[in-house]
Amino acid sequence: MRTAISCFALTCAALLAVPALAKLPPLSEEAKAKAAAAAAKAAWAGKVDAYQLCLAMDRAAQEYRTTEKLAGKTAPPPVETPACVNPGPYVAAPAPAASGTPPAVAATAAHPKK
Fold first, then answer.
1. From CA 94, how far away is CA 73, in angstroms rounded?
2. Exposure string (b/e) for 46-78, b if CB count within 10 Å is 16 or more?
């Protein structure tokens, strides 16, 4: 009896897993463009976060040096670090021109492999 139940459970699990193996349709050009735009905006947001973190660390270090100076202590000299780089406002990439050939094919035709 126990073997029959385990065989039945195994069969049910196999039948339920089959739809999970189905292949998804390829993304449309519009979906690919939206995904690329979302990735570009996420990359820009990461640069803004890094810039704001850089400014906050500079303010904290300056506050530490000021507090140490007011307390009559000598603070260690500041460590040379790269300047904080402002990424500027987000600018969306221009949409590719609507032509008969996809951009990848057009780029390959313009620059043939050597």
1. 55
2. eeeeeeeebeeeeeeeeeeeeeeeeeeeeeeee
Nearest CA among 87, 76, 74, 83 for reference residue 54: 83
Mapping DSSP to helix (H, G, I), strand (E, B) and coil, where does residue 81 land? coil
Does the CA dihedral 7-8-13-16 come out positive or negative? positive
Nearest to 81, CA basis, from 53, 49, 110: 53
Residue type at position 97:
A
Tokens of 54: 């850089």
Instruction: Tell me how long the chain is.
Output: 114
Using the structure block, give the residue that is written with the tokens 């780089």. 85
pLDDT means per 10 residues in the chain (114 residues)? 77 72 87 95 97 97 94 90 94 68 50 48
pTM of the predicted protein model: 0.60
Cβ–Cβ under 8 Å, residues 96 and 103: yes
